[in-house]
Amino acid sequence: MRTDSSPGTLPAREHLPAAPAGTPVLDVVIPVYNEEKDLRPCVRRLHEHLDRTFPYPFRITIADNASTDTTPQVAGRLAAEIPEAAVFRLEQKGRGRALRAVWSASDAPVLAYMDVDLSTDLNALLPLVAPLISGHSDLAIGSRLARSSRVVRGPKREFISRAYNLILRGSLQARFSDAQCGFKAIRRDVAQVLLPLVEDTGWFFDTEMLVLAERAGLRIHEVPVDWVDDPDSTVHIVKTATDDLKGVWRIGRALTTGSLPLYRLARPFGDDPRDRDIKGVPTGLARQLVGFCVVGALSTLFYLLLYSGFRVFTGSQAANALALLVSTVANTAANRRLTFGVRGRGGTVRHQAQGLVVFGIGLALTSGSLAALNAASSEPAHSTELAVLIAANLAATVLRFLLFRAWVFPDRREDDPSGATPYGTTTPTGFTHAGTGPTAAPTGFTHAGTTAYRTTPYDTAQFRAAEAADGTVGVPPLERSREWGRETTLHLQPVRPHDTDTRDIR
């Protein structure tokens, strides 16, 4: 969570506040499916390590993914023997499903998970969660691909892991180095907003969570790990790889269409360029110019191709008008998304209408140029027409950028009532949580042989009124969040960077 800082500095994330007595700071989840042989030594070893080295209260939660062997009995005995151990039973398989269920129900401010084989050396656990406790980062991952990592595994697993991460970098522009290492942590306040956006319930859960977090500007801390491959791993490599590629396609399509409501995470957790709106420091004019020039060059090429095609069937004035109209609609959409960072569908019609006004100015310039050319020469060469149009378009381009920046996509400091969410311009500048809905744990924590259900603190009158307004009364929050872009879990309230209210907005 962020707090506002003094003028001239960036807003800072907040160190975790002191937890009430008896509340664990860290909840380590171990997802298991038919692990009757490895579960006991894993939990014993993890508990001994945490008890010896971890300076805060902790909990170890065994997330049983519908095991059919004696894993539930082994887990129950461990919970009875170890005060810090708990069991969470699910009747459906899926590592992502287990992590979502346990993390959503946990009361610990830092949530982590690791694989039952403990392939990752436990000495990396404290460096993994320390940046989350201090407020420096929002998520943390163990990386087997960092330069200083020490990894022992066969060439087949090495090739698959590196190939998968190359696919993520090439297709989703991921910057984190290792998506598949079963050694990750997240702050609970971030998880409450991020997890409802994650759709996968299996092995792709980690990747999807990291991609969405990174795209929203959350800070991901990477820890080099020592890792030894488990030769008895039960992971089906081919099926897992196929499911992961399907997930990459689904997320890539959603990011391309702008259907993911990532603005929910932009503040107070993620990075927002308005955090850098510090007096005396230049803003993003240079970046916008570069983006506008790239879009403009492609639009001009597109326009000339259209003009040449239309010119075969009609006169120069009609061909120019049609080509300019089509290319202007495409140009406005591209600049909206790429140059000025407007995300979501809100305000699209208004922006296109304003773009058509700009189109009218460009049409007047280019048509006037063609008219002047035709007046000077009764049958000008096609190459001459193109040269005149290029010159006129250059003049129109300069004017178009100025109008786009000052009128169509202005750098507003207030929320845009149209609902558009430009990244760095009209994205809501602060979150006030009215809640994530009345959520009860789908199963429950079994601790020392007892079962307890955790009720949510977010069942507020304000949230129930919002449910009544959008017709989602009685619908579980995770189901409500399945529809991309629906705002059913948050109410937003503007907080500008110069505000000095340092109260915790959670």
Q: Would you write up a description of this structure?
A:
This protein has 506 residues and is α/β, with parallel strands linked by helices. 45% of the residues lie in helices and 13% in strands. The protein has helices at 39-53, 71-81, 95-105, 125-134, 155-172, 188-194, 205-215, 237-257, 263-266, 285-311, 316-339, 348-376, 382-408, 461-470, 477-480, and strands at residues 2-3, 12-13, 26-32, 58-65, 85-90, 110-114, 139-143, 150-152, 183-187, 220-224, 226-228, 342-343, 421-422, 431-432, 445-447, 450-452, 491-492. The strands form five sheets. Strands 10-7-9-6-3-4-5-15-16 form a nine-stranded mixed sheet, with helices on both faces. It is elongated. Mean pLDDT is 75; it is low at 413-506.
Looking at this protein, list some descriptive labels:
single chain; 506 residues; alpha/beta; 9-stranded mixed beta sheet; two-stranded antiparallel sheet; disordered C terminus
Compact summary:
The chain is α/β, with parallel strands linked by helices. The chain has helices at 39-53, 71-81, 95-105, 125-134, 155-172, 188-194, 205-215, 237-257, 263-266, 285-311, 316-339, 348-376, 382-408, 461-470, 477-480; strands at 2-3, 12-13, 26-32, 58-65, 85-90, 110-114, 139-143, 150-152, 183-187, 220-224, 226-228, 342-343, 421-422, 431-432, 445-447, 450-452, 491-492.
Characterize the overall form.
Answer: elongated
Structural class: alpha/beta
Q: What is the terminal-to-terminal distance?
A: 8 Å
Low-confidence stretches: 413-506
Counting DSSP H or I runs of 4 or more residues, the number of helices is 15
How many E-type strands? 17
Strand order of the largest sheet: 10-7-9-6-3-4-5-15-16
Described by strand count, sense and barrel closure, the largest sheet is:
9 strands, mixed
- What helical percentage do the residues reach? 40-55%
